[in-house]
Amino acid sequence: MMALVQNAAEGYKKMEIDAIELSDSKAKIIIKDTTNAFVNSLRRVMLSEVPTLVIDDVNIYDNTSVLFDEQIALRLGLIPIKTDLKSYNLPEECSCNGEGCTMCQLSLTLSVEGPKMVYSGDIISADPSVYPADPKIPIIELKEDQKLFLEAIARLGLGKTHAKWQAGVACGYKNLSKITITNCDACGICVEACPQNIIELQCTTAVVTDPLKCTLCKLCEDACDIDAITVDQDESVVILNFESDGSYTAKELIIEASNVLQEKASTLKQILQTLQ
Amino acid sequence: MIPVRCFTCGKVIGSVWEEFTKRSESEDAGAVLDDLGINRYCCRRMLLSHVKLVDILSPYQ
Asked: What range(s) does the 4Fe-4S ferredoxin-type domain occupy (chain A) (predicted)?
């Protein structure tokens, strides 16, 4: 067993990470010398274990709009809120034992009279550093004489409890494609067949212009009459795509996800050490 | 009311609704969606297939 662990350590190469695309809401990252299992765990943490602050309880004092109280509460819950993990605790980990204190709860109020379109930006937060990530989300359109007055309580939570706490959106990964072209007669059939248009004819052979765009559909392989092209995947290189819902920037999200993963690994290590 | 998020992927789509309806009167709806960064077909159908009911319902309160 010990020998096995040592061998694994010797074979371990430090992974290389390159950001192909990195904006506030979206990222495409290429990770070399890694495994699908590792990137998948990162992806799953982003979807279900990164805490976000979201409206969880709503006290409605007055609602004469066209929507029912429950529907308004649902819409409020889905609004992403800029999350500051340093100032808030998960209710179950808070020193108040989940009873609710300023360390694990945030109160927000919304008071509007029609005629007016109510936006997420109209919500007034008790903590000025925490506010709805997108101020332009319509909540409800109030007509003449309609009113909405409510108090909402936001809490930290995990995506595995309810999708409203899910910080990562549309997270996915794929392996980098490895396309080899040998003895090509430059007939151009594969160029026609590729739905991503990433194969080009250059002189006497077909050339792949952008392997990152390859979806591994293998249509070029099927189209080639002389089997000159083969599509394979490089399992040590993973392209990770993810978006954030707005509660974090994409960069913060992946850093937070790796923190959660690291914490889990160290908890496991601690438990294993106490077993001996 | 337009849903806050896409039912399938969870991307916030409510915030682009007003710009989408305004611009799609004069422009091609598909091109407007591309421009607004609504790329996946799950999010696109949220906006394309939405029927606004507030004005129809409000007289019956």
From this structure: 175-204, 205-234
Contact of A77 with A54, CB cutoff 8 Å? yes
Residue A181 falls in which region: left (phi positive, over 0), alpha (psi -120 to 50) or beta: beta
Contacts of B9 in chain A (CB under 8 A): 169-170
- Rounded to the nearest angstrom, the minimum Cα separation between A161 and chain B is 15
Residues forming beta bridges with residue A241, ordered by sequence position = A28, A172
Helix (H) or strand (E) holding A240: strand A229-244
> In this predicted complex, what is the ipTM?
0.91
Check A166 against B18: CB less than 8 A apart.
Answer: no
Whether A272 maps to a domain, the answer reads no
Give the residue numbers spanning the domain of A143: 52-165
User: What is residue B12's DSSP assignment?
Assistant: B
Pairing of strands A229-244, A124-125: unpaired
Rounded Cα–Cα distance for residues A136 and A117 (Å): 10
The string of pLDDT tens digits covering residues A193-241 is 999 999 988 888 888 888 888 988 999 999 988 888 999 999 999 999 9
Residues A72 and A155 in one domain: yes
**Domain of A88: which CATH number?**
2.170.120.12
Which residue on chain B is closest to A135 by alpha carbon? B15
Judge if A137 and A154 occupy the same domain.
Answer: yes
Residue A216 falls within a domain, yes or no?
A: yes
CB hemisphere CA count around B41 (13 angstroms) = 0
**Most distant CA pair in chain B, distance:** 38
Q: Do A66 and B4 touch (CB under 8 A)?
A: no
Residue A270 located in a structural domain = no
For chain A, what is the domain count? 2
**Alpha carbon of B11: minimum distance to chain A alpha carbons (Å):** 6
Indicate which CATH number applies to the domain containing A211. Answer: 3.30.1360.10
- List, in sequence order, every residue forming a beta bridge with A242; answer none if it has no partner: A27
* A266 within a domain of the structure (yes/no): no
pLDDT digits (tens, 9 = 90+) for A39-94: 999 999 999 999 999 999 999 999 999 999 999 999 999 999 998 888 888 888 88
Regarding whether A102 and A31 lie in a shared domain, the answer is no
